[in-house]
Amino acid sequence: MSRDPIVARSLPALHETLNAFRAANDTVALVPTMGALHEGHLGLVREARRRCKRVAVSIFVNPTQFAPHEDFDSYPRTWDTDVAKLAAENVDLIWNPDVKTMYPSGFASRIVTEGPAVVDLEDRFRPHFFGGVATVVGKLFIQCRPDVAVFGEKDYQQLRVVTRMARDLDLGVDVIGLATVREHDGLAMSSRNVYLSPEERATAPVLHRTMQDTAATLRAGDKVAAALAAGAARITKAGFALDYFEARHAETLQPIASLGDGPVRLLVAAKIGTTRLIDNIGV
């Protein structure tokens, strides 16, 4: 039987609830989100439940990770539906601060990330992004003091950045990455998929199919440069404006020349219509 989660909108309310969990010696897992929850998010919640006694989900559309030309104002916000989904998963706590709580007047500090944050992938096209992500996630970790935080692998560079940050700053959080949840045709679940027209939605799975086929040719011995060029051409022919299609070391995200250079991840970002999609798979 589902139950309504506690909703905290102020730091005192958040800390009161978390202190009660800690007093009972309960472990806490955090799932950071921007809302507009889908099955991928709920998979993160279920993994959090497997790992800890208490599950907290943050819902905060973070303005500092959006550039002025991006979709902050139009980003989907579905509060009532989100709460109902989290209640069905028996989430214990929803942390739903407003912008003034997260960034009060005079706020003047941020976390600057290097390493996997500056590898010429998302950072090339969204140079503002990881500074905003690192700062807000750092604040969430400090505010919630979770034992575990669960992120999806779909935002793979983000996962590597957050993992590195938590380790470097000794935040005491075990960051867990969960495999991407996909639609029946392979499209990675994303809150932004609602922007796709029917025609664009029918084309979108080309990204995943191309990555799968490219990974297979690499495992069969094809050279990395040739395999990536063929995949990029296929994506472009399908109607995408390609930002990147890369093979990188799965941990450092540095470029690789062959599969022998370490565990390999294929990463892609491309726009179809007005919607930018990202995805990745292991080779």
Structure notes:
This protein is an alpha/beta fold and 283 residues long. It folds into 2 domains: 6-178, HUPs (Rossmann fold); 191-282, Pantoate-beta-alanine ligase, C-terminal domain (Pantoate--beta-alanine Ligase, Chain: A,domain 2, 2-Layer Sandwich), CATH 3.30.1300.10. The chain is built from 10 helices and 9 strands. The termini are far apart.
How is the topology of this model organized?
Blueprint: E1 6-8, H1 11-23, E2 28-33, H2 39-51, E3 54-59, H3 79-88, E4 93-95, H4 99-102, H5 122-125, H6 129-144, E5 148-152, H7 156-168, E6 174-178, H8 198-203, H9 206-219, H10 224-237, E7 241-249, E8 264-272, E9 275-282
Parallel strand pairs: 1-4, 2-3, 2-5, 3-4, 5-6
Antiparallel strand pairs: 7-8, 8-9
Helix pairs in contact: 6-7, 9-10
Quick synopsis:
It contains ten helices and nine strands. By secondary structure, it is an alpha/beta fold.
| Strand neighbour order, sheet with most strands | 1-4-3-2-5-6
Unreliable parts: none
Q: What spatial form do the alpha-carbon principal axes imply?
A: globular
CATH class of the largest domain: Alpha Beta
- How many β-strand stretches? 9
Radius of gyration of CA atoms, rounded to a whole number: 19 Å
Assembly category: single chain
Count up the helices.
10
Fill in the CATH topology of the largest domain: Rossmann fold
- Termini Cα gap: 41 Å
CATH superfamily of the largest domain: HUPs
The share of residues in extended strands comes to: 15-25%
The appropriate CATH architecture of the largest domain is 3-Layer(aba) Sandwich
Helix content: 25-40%
Output mean pLDDT: 96
Sheet with the most strands, sense and barrel status: 6 strands, parallel
Write the element-wise H/E pattern from the N-terminal end onward.
EHEHEHEHHHEHEHHHEEE
- How many domains, in number, for the residues? 2
